[in-house]
Fold this sequence. Notes:
Blueprint lengths: L2 H20 L2 H20 L2 H5 L1 H28 L3
Helix pairs in contact: 2-4
Amino acid sequence: MSTRAMSSVLRAIWDNTYGLLVDDGQLAIGAIAALAITWLVAQMSDETVRENAGWLLLVLVLALVLANLYRAGRNARRQRNPR
Length: 83
């Protein structure tokens, strides 16, 4: 592999890693928060609620993904149609 090709591969890896940490950072923080909320609910609740804590986690993560998709759509629309 040539130096130029290696540099291109390393640049792509860096760009993707940076994108995951910066662009998707809010999504990752939200997922960790959803996990923490689910854990707290499971720890503080009775057995019936504890057994259904997985459903709570699913709902929280789905809401988080939908909110991020909505925000990404608004940002894309704003970039497409600047005022």
